[in-house]
Amino acid sequence: MKILYLNPAGHLGGAERVLLDLMAGMREAKSDWRLDLVTAMDGALVTAAREIGVAVTVAAFPRPLARLGDAGAGGPAGSQMGLWKVCGRLGAAAPMVGGYLRRLRRTIAESAPDVVHTNGFKMHLLGVWATPRATPVLWHLHDYVRMRPMMSRLLRLHARRCAAVVANSRSVAADARAALGADVRMFTVYNAVDLARFNPDGSRLDLDALAGMAPLAAGGVRVGLPATMARWKGHETFLHAIAALPRDTPVRGYVIGGPLYQTTGSQYQIDELRAIAGRLGIGDRVGFTGFVDDAASALRALDIVVHASTQPEPFGLVIAEAMACGRAVIASAGGGAAEIISPGVNALDHAPGDAAALAARIAELAASPGERQRLGTAAFRFAGQRFSRARLATEMTPVYRGLA
Ligand code: GLC
What is the pLDDT of residue 74? Predict the structure, then answer.
């Protein structure tokens, strides 16, 4: 069996990390299958995929195509462009798209796959345009289609050419069904994480040093929000929750992450968040580490991991990673994120955007090392059963077989 994966980005965002875990899981489970990957950009995904024995071709998008649409959105409705702007760019990109399609068609023909697996909106479309009719194309959805009106329409138009959809949660699957029509073959397959990297044992980052703060006093509790800087990730909810804690609560907050693009609008800049913390009077109680490469070491350095998305989260990879690291997690109960935790059993939750509720959960856990331990242990066990690469490969194998 030959699978050809198509991915627009070359860096390691959430969808790319899942793709990497999937390819690694497939290689382990089916060593005789051939896995090829085409990306439209170079980057860490390309290097990591080659390391696990995947043959990678970088077929770079021409500039207008690279700039088109919702790339870099970083999640639901992240940087949704105005429809007219998209149409304008689409028009400008049209001649280039033709050339790119010819190149993609050649690459697909050379690979001669049994299944083409696309992992990102642009590749869902380009994939169905460039793949021979006899070859099934599978769309792997990581985000809500209906959050992107233009893409939603385009995908619906081409849904008949898509042999099956894989969604990363039931919530994303339901949205896709509404967007694409009830006839699409839909599979819900939850993401995996690399449990060899994300586990309780291993190094811990010095978050205080990274944030330029004095070491936290003994007995202090570290509460962090590791997230991209997209505005819907709930940084303000988090800062308001820290501000709502009584001043003598021995908690220090950490905002872990940095903006990927130097644009304002859909993303926070760190200075902006610092200013908000200053206005809330918690400048001395919150640290900003900036982007960290080693996510697992950052998670292990926290006592409490907060996920605070203010819009429904399609899946919420950081929740799965934090659980795998045996952390006490407080997640925002919306979208797929609500499907992957059992509140009170292996994590706590709060309503999206509800800073007071989040503060109450933080206070509860900050006061009880035993409760943190109980939740962390349950989370670790749950993650071991549910988020392994092997499980991902086991669930995807029959999907591929059925299509081929
Ligand atoms: C997207 C989603 C996020 C999910 C990730 C991996 O980035 O917004 O919720 O965890 O894809 O599927």
Answer: 40
